[in-house]
């Protein structure tokens, strides 16, 4: 037999595609040719596979070997094809009877000594195989717990090429995946630690309940960073679909913690202000990798000292904030990553940033305007909640331990508000108020009466808010009503939404 075929999975972004790895051995000068749009890492598989086969005690066929990866029009990236290439090559040479591998997806990178090493992106690969009806997969032992997360798929693991060979020849058992370890329970930051700042706490709660973006402006020590870091503590745990999306993204990025479990807690990303555009939105050579905005999918992206970020980095966030996805086009191919995150910006009002507040500011009006102008109008227009924090008073600081409300109490209200919104928007494809398209809220049955929106209409007509700002204030009003247990927003809810958006309510 000179032809053999096994199954593997290729990734483009977080989308997996079933790939057939074909091997054809013909007479002629010894050579190995790989076709099917392989990248550099895949081209180098020729040398890795040859050394691994020989060092595993198998005979290398000195013939002309053609390896083809179907579909040939799909770009192939990475080293996850090594183990499948070795199996197809040994099957084509007659060394292995491949009947036991029929309908089995094989994933893994080979070391020169024949060891099978873990690879990135195994979870979305196995998920793609399951969608294609594959019921059995073989993965590196280091990825076994991660792969076993996908239901309906029988996962087995190998640590060496030799173990795979003995399984095919003799039926020797493969390695069972370990049981998933529970996520460790840690205390984490709590809202009870935040002194005073009732407006900031209210803004944080509204943002959490509706999935709204948030900007916090105030002097050093006012609690901007403390509030932002405690936002995940009042967000509900991720449901199965969201947890699978988040875990798949972290798998592709190689950031999954050990233990083989779905990530249930909303992720929190806080890049330094020197972060580059690719690190924020995604990039890298070849196929672009996910950036911080995608790694914060279904969670929080916190930009502390936001005016210190480069203008290009901040402006690059505008498109994913609007659409919840980021499309990256690179010379090695284009890809798309989900990026439905809550953005939280924190900024001092000026460069001198006196802790006592604006009364002691040493900056000229021009310097203050230039500093905050680094946050462009189009970017801020996408931020639903924008609040200014005042310096903390001594009384608030000393009374915090006895009077501040803990995250658990706020989280209960946030969860109830999200359930109300999800029930209301059932059938629309959205679950959060922040996701509802503006036209949907401006038509019956969700259009608010004129007596409740008179102030808001006046601001739109005067040009003090944009049409986008109008829609975002209406969304905020619905979230406020959900938090307070009302079926529809009233005039007071709209006025509070205006205050949270603009800093004044009249």
Present the secondary structure layout.
Layout: E1 3-12, E2 15-26, E3 31-35, H1 40-43, H2 45-55, E4 64-70, H3 82-92, E5 104-106, E6 109-110, E7 116-117, H4 122-131, E8 136-140, H5 144-147, E9 154-158, H6 161-170, H7 198-210, E10 214-217, H8 224-229, H9 240-252, E11 268-269, H10 277-281, E12 282-283, E13 289-290, H11 292-295, E14 300-303, H12 311-315, H13 318-323, E15 325-330, E16 333-338, E17 342-347, H14 365-372, H15 377-380, E18 385-388, H16 394-403, H17 407-424, H18 438-441, H19 450-462, H20 467-483, H21 491-502
Parallel strand pairs: 3-4, 5-8, 8-9, 10-17, 10-18, 11-14, 14-17
Antiparallel strand pairs: 1-2, 2-4, 6-7, 12-13, 15-16
Helix pairs in contact: 2-3, 7-17, 7-20, 17-20, 19-21, 20-21
């Amino acid at each position: 037999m000179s032809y053999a075929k096994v199954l593997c999975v290729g990734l483009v972004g977080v989308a997996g595609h079933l790939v057939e790895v074909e091997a054809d051995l013909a007479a002629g000068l010894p050579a190995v040719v790989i076709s099917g749009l392989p990248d550099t890492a895949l081209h180098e598989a020729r040398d890795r596979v040859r050394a691994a086969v020989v060092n595993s005690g198998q005979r290398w066929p000195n013939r002309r070997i053609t390896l083809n990866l179907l579909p040939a029009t799909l770009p192939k990236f990475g080293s996850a094809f090594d183990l499948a290439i070795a199996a197809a090559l040994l099957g084509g040479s007659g060394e292995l009877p491949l009947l036991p591998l029929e309908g089995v997806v094989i994933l893994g990178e080979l070391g020169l000594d024949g060891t099978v090493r873990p690879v990135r992106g195994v979870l979305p690969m196995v998920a793609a195989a399951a969608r294609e009806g594959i019921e059995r997969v073989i993965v590196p032992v280091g990825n076994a717990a991660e792969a076993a997360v996908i239901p309906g798929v029988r996962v087995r693991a190998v640590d060496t090429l030799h173990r795979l060979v003995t399984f095919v020849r003799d039926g020797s058992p493969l390695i069972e995946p370990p049981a998933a370890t529970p996520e460790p329970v840690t205390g984490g930051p709590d809202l009870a630690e935040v002194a005073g700042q009732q407006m900031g706490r209210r803004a944080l709660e509204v943002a959490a309940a509706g999935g709204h973006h948030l900007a916090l402006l105030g002097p050093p020590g006012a609690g901007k960073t403390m509030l932002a870091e405690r936002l995940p503590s009042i967000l509900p745990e991720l449901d199965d679909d969201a947890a699978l999306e988040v875990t798949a993204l972290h798998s592709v990025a190689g950031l999954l913690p050990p233990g083989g479990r779905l990530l249930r807690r909303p992720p929190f990303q806080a890049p330094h202000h020197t972060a580059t555009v690719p690190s924020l939105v995604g990039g890298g050579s070849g196929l672009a990798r996910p950036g911080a905005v995608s790694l914060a999918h279904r969670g929080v992206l916190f930009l502390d000292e936001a005016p210190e970020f480069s203008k290009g980095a901040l402006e690059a966030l505008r498109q994913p904030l609007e659409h919840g996805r980021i499309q990256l086009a690179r010379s090695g191919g284009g890809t798309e990553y989900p990026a439905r995150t809550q953005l939280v910006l924190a900024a001092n009002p000026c460069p001198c940033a006196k802790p006592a507040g604006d009364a002691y500011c040493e900056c000229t009006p021009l310097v203050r305007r230039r500093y905050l102008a680094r946050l462009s109008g189009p970017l801020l227009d996408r931020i639903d909640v924008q609040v200014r924090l005042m310096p903390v008073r001594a009384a608030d600081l000393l009374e915090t331990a006895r009077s501040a409300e803990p995250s658990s109490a706020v989280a209960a209200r946030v969860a109830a508000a999200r359930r109300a919104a999800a029930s209301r928007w059932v059938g629309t494809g959205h679950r959060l108020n922040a996701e509802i398209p503006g036209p949907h809220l401006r038509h019956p049955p969700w259009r608010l009466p004129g007596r409740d929106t008179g102030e808001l209409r006046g601001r739109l007509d005067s040009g003090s808010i944009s049409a986008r700002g109008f829609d975002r204030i209406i969304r905020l009003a619905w979230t406020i009503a959900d938090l307070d247990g009302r079926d529809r927003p009233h005039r007071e809810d709209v006025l509070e939404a205006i205050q949270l958006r603009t800093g004044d309510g009249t």
